[in-house]
Structures are given as C-alpha cells and as structure tokens.
Amino acid sequence: MRIETGVPGFDELVGGGLPVGRLYVLSGPPGGGKTTFAAHFVSEGALAGEKCLFLSMHESKAEMASDMGEFDFGFERAISSGRVRFLNVLSDLSEELLLPNAAGGFQSGIQSASDRIVKFVEAHDIQRLVIDSTMLLRYFYEQDDTAFIQFVSALKRSDATVLLIAEMTDPASYADEHYLAHGVVFLHNYMEEGDMRRGLQILKMRGTDIDTDVRAIEFGPGGLTVRQERLADE
C-alpha cells in the first residue's frame, strides 16, 4: 500500500506514492524546501482523514501557518481540521515525549523516550509523523550516537509513516539516519550560469524502481512542485 505525499510531480517518481508505515529521510540545505515538502505531506494526510503529528524544532504552529499560508495546497484547512497535532520542541508535551529520564541514566532515558513517542503514535492512531529536524534529536541525544540510532530504529517500528527532516549540504556525506531509513530524498540548491537552481533527487527507496537523476523543482501558488525536467549533476 502506498500513500500520496501531496507534492505535485513527486509521487509519479516513486510508483504512485510512499510505501506506507516506513521511515523516510528528507535532506538538504537551508531554503531547499524541506519544511514545505513536509507541510504538503501532513496536509495531504489530514485532508484525507488521517491523523498526523508534526514535531518541530524551528517554528511554532502559528509561524508554520503563516509561512504556509501563502500557498493554496490546504495547510491551513489541514490544521483547522483537528487532524494535525503540531508540537514545538519547547512545548511541555514534546519535552515529555523526548527528554531523557535523568533518574534512570542516559540509556534508560533514550529507551523510555523511544517507548513514549511510539506509544503516543499508537495511542492517538497517528498515521503520518514529521520530525523537523534531526537537529531536534541531536539536541536531546548528542551525548551518544548509539542512543540516536536506537531512537530512529524505534520510529521505524511504529505504525506511522515517518518523515524525518535532516539538514545537509553534501549528498555524498551520509549520516546514520540515511542508512537506517527506507527511503532518502535530497533537495539541492546550487548556482548555474549565475542563477539559483533547485532540484530534488531520490537517492534510495526500498521496494520501488527509481532513477537517481536530479529533477527540477519550483515554488508557486500551489507550493512545491517537482518537474520532470532533469538537471545536470552539480
């Protein structure tokens, strides 16, 4: 079974959508479109009747609504539907979900946090989960790479389809989450003949026939659109 991302032009590149219940990493530089892609993803789910959870390190719900309000793909309607639970990392609930339990030591804390977020997903029947971004996880779990890997592995075992956003500027420099994920999508920003070009590249997608060509992307009233035009490698 596959689910649509809501990003025009993307689903055609991955066999009609993302295989459900898996973990995907969306990487790229600042301003590449990662958060907009994620907003499409939760909007598509919410407007189709799915429950979604958006954990953000960067923005509040009001800031996200303002940023995405310039587009007409339905983010505001998705938020007002009540099917998107948006939590900033500084909120009490997100801290409760993520903070290590000091009393039990760090390893105990990471296991406890992993259990809590998976149980939260299951208890609230969350079908789409976005974590924006791995900086959030590194912030809490920077003391131990093994603990970070355990957290990501726990997310993979949840029933939700997970979109994990990662800040990254070099697609050849892979991190732990890229190896653990079922799929990896990279967004590019680069200069070509004096103009800024933006592109999207699918580096990995288990169970799906893909090509790894860089496709042009653009922003317009409908948000982010992936075009069929292939761009030259950087």
Describe the protein's architecture and organization:
By secondary structure, this protein is α/β, with parallel strands linked by helices. It has helices at residues 34-47, 61-68, 75-80, 92-98, 105-123, 134-141, 145-157, 176-180; strands spanning 2-3, 18-19, 23-28, 52-56, 84-88, 128-132, 161-167, 183-192, 195-205, 214-220, 223-231. It has a domain at 2-23 and 32-171: Rossmann fold (3-Layer(aba) Sandwich). The protein contains 8 helices and 11 strands. α5 (105-123) packs parallel to α7 (145-157).
How would you write the strand order of the largest sheet? Answer: 5-4-6-7-3-8-9-10-11
Distance between the amino and carboxyl termini: 34 Å
Q: Total number of helical segments?
A: 8
Sheet of most strands: 9 strands, mixed
Q: Going by CATH, what is the homologous superfamily of one domain?
A: P-loop containing nucleotide triphosphate hydrolases
Helical proportion, percent range: 25-40%
The CATH architecture of one domain can be named as 3-Layer(aba) Sandwich
Would you tell me the structural class of the helices and strands?
A: alpha/beta
Kindly report the average pLDDT value: 83
Return residue spans where pLDDT drops below 50 for at least 5 consecutive residues: 104-109
Order of helices and strands: EEEHEHHEHHEHHEHEEEE
What is the 3D shape? globular
CATH topology of one domain, by name, is Rossmann fold
